[in-house]
Amino acid sequence: MIVQACINGARPREFHPRLPLTAQTMASDAAACVAAGAAELHIHPRSIDGRESLAAVNATVLAVRQACPGTLVGVSTGAWIEDDVERTRTAIGGWRELPDYASVNLSEVDAPGVMELLRNRGVGIEAGLATLADAERFVGLADHGRVLRILIEIDIRDLPAALDEAHGIAAVLERAGVRRPILLHGVDATVWPFVELAHRKRWSTRVGLEDGKTLADGRTARDNAEIVAAAVAIFRPVPAG
């Protein structure tokens, strides 16, 4: 069970004043998150104009590694980043500073191809499952056991519906005999209920400005580190006395 920090995602600059968008601000923010208890980092590298970019992975991963030696660093491969299958594959094939793992969304057409490319490059895979259809597609892959972990990542704002989808995905994995670690996370209003659920289930979780900017009591967090510290407190409560 770990708490992963997702420090920026696809959020726009105006989402939060402390949203890190350059390699150096991501590196310093990541170091603060690790100091707050994050075991791993999930980042969306940005180009000089602030847009998400797979070509920016080299400089960003290097900067984050220098700031956080020994901490696993992951990136997104979301199809929207390059918005073209061949550009996505070319960018991944050109990485020189390899991340430890990369997230692949099973809802995307080229997900199996991206997964195979990552394996060939020695990059671990987080298989992102947002729907029951994603889960069924994933367990239907011949090599579904060859992933680092599974992300149950629900982008449904209504909490009861989000919980139903998460439990349904877990049931698909269970029926298929999948025995890979699970990381559960929500978005905005479902972030903290899902942190609590992950803790009860003994799954991992992630928090940070990619997923939401508020603390469990609804206050806007000062920064990613404050969000991480709050999640770590749930996962590792201080013993009484």
Automatic annotation (TrEMBL):
Origin superkingdom: Bacteria
Protein name as annotated: 3-keto-5-aminohexanoate cleavage enzyme
A Pfam family annotated for this UniProt entry: BKACE
GO terms, molecular function: 3-keto-5-aminohexanoate cleavage activity
